[in-house]
Design brief:
CATH topology of the largest domain: Rossmann fold
CATH architecture of the largest domain: 3-Layer(aba) Sandwich
Radius of gyration: 46 Å
Number of strands: 13
Order of helices and strands: HHHHEEHEEEHHEEEEEEEHEHHHHHHH
Number of domains: 3
Strand content: 5-15%
Structural class: alpha/beta
Helix content: 40-55%
Shape: rod-shaped
Oligomer: single chain
Distance between the termini: 41 Å
């Protein structure tokens, strides 16, 4: 193989380059999608006190139970709309939750706030599990409540684990007897008992003016509380009594740092800007396809201003074109063609211009020329536009071929 042949070959196979580009595009697109939807892709099983956590003190079992029993369930990560006012919103604040965070949630429907109870730490041996370090003081359990709800409220703690039979305020049994460690109850002047324990102490209360419920003990609906059949039935009954029939249940996740954040990537990947993104992607694909399948090799770039006679001719032609005087070149061009034909056929040199024209016309008639030079010269003198110049030049070229027998 010659050196020139080697130099024209590519360093890599075209197929390898195409595959590399496709892999890069797919990887970049995947990275963008993962960056845009990272919060939604998190499992949330971090041992926290929310509806995605499957730890003992989390509430991950409650949405599964509700779905299995036919209740619509929604995991809330953003801002609530008016369409959610018919739903039950469940808030599960932690000891670190600030009252302002609950006040900022705008929901005009029924709201159930589950008070915190346990202090925990992640279990290093099992992902998503927790180890309980103790219980919160009753005063600390009320800290996440807004000031208007916390005023005058009192949390009471029963000693030791025991089986508790819940009931309605009128004495009607509620749910099934469940075993709870240190059952907590809530009372206050602004609360109306909804469900009480067997000592007539409110476990679930409702505000007198607001559609706000508070569950004093989370062990009645968290994962460890739903591990038995009796606990599952009682937990479902507690949720069912606070929501309207067939209305959805919304579990809030924003209090636990799982709020959906808006960013530029999400904006271009969702309507109404998704169409624009698809169009731009298609245009980029077409540009890449054109670059791959373009006709012919790469055009070599030359000097901007050519050197020598060619540069002089190009500059002169540019000036003539700029002045729009191309048609004035028709008559001189006709004279140049006449001189070239006269030399080619051996016309006598002593002839005057008129005699030379007559001589060329006689030769043309003998050769069967389609035009006489006299007619062509007249057309050149009367040319008015660049189009006339091109037509005269074409006719002169054919006349030249006919007289010099160069026509094929």
């Amino acid at each position: 193989m010659s050196l020139s042949a080697k130099s024209t070959g590519g360093a890599f196979s075209p197929l390898i380059m195409i595959v590399a580009v496709l892999v890069g595009v797919v990887c970049f697109a995947g990275l963008g999608l993962l960056s845009a939807y990272a919060p939604e892709l998190k499992s949330g099983n971090d041992g926290g006190g929310h509806a995605l956590s499957r730890g003992a003190t989390g509430f991950g079992a409650l949405p599964i139970l509700l779905r299995d029993l036919g209740a619509p369930v929604v995991m809330h990560r953003g801002v609530l709309t008016e369409a959610s006012d018919d739903s039950l919103l469940i808030l599960t604040p932690t000891p670190d939750t600030q009252p302002e965070q609950i006040d900022e949630i705008e929901h005009f429907g029924a709201t159930l706030i589950v008070l915190p109870k346990w202090t925990t730490m992640p279990d290093p041996k099992h992902q998503g599990w927790v180890r309980t370090l103790g219980v919160l003081a009753p005063e600390a359990a009320l800290e996440p409540l807004p000031k208007a709800l916390r005023k005058g409220s009192l949390v009471t703690v029963r000693k030791g684990p025991e089986t508790v039979a819940l009931r309605r305020p009128d004495g009607t049994p509620f749910g099934m007897p469940v075993r709870v460690e240190g059952l907590r109850t809530l009372s206050g002047p602004q609360w109306i008992p909804v469900v009480t324990d067997d000592q007539n102490r409110p476990v679930l209360v409702m505000h007198k003016e607001l559609r706000t419920y508070v569950l004093a003990d989370p062990d009645l609906i968290n994962t460890q509380g739903l591990k038995t059949l009796a606990g599952a039935r009682t937990g479902f009954a507690l949720i069912d009594i606070t929501r309207a029939q067939t209305s959805p249940v919304i579990f809030d996740l924003t209090l636990h740092g799982l709020k959906r954040s808006r960013n530029l990537l999400r904006l271009v990947l969702e309507p109404p800007f998704l169409g624009m993104t698809l169009v731009l992607a298609a245009l980029a694909a077409f540009v890449g396809l054109q670059a791959v399948v373009r006709f012919g090799p790469t055009r070599e770039t030359g000097r901007v201003i050519a050197l020598g006679k060619r540069g002089l001719a190009d500059n002169t032609a540019g000036l003539v074109r700029l002045a729009r005087r191309e048609h004035h070149m028709a008559a001189p061009y006709a004279l140049l063609v006449r001189a070239a034909v006269a030399r080619a056929i051996g016309a006598p040199r002593h002839l005057s211009e008129a005699s030379l024209d007559a001589f060329l016309d006689r030769v043309g008639r003998m050769n069967g020329a389609s035009h006489t030079y006299f007619a062509l010269a007249e057309q050149a003198r009367t040319a008015k536009t660049s189009g006339d110049l091109m037509r005269v030049a074409g006719a002169l070229y054919r006349w030249n071929q006919e007289l010099t027998r160069g026509r094929q």
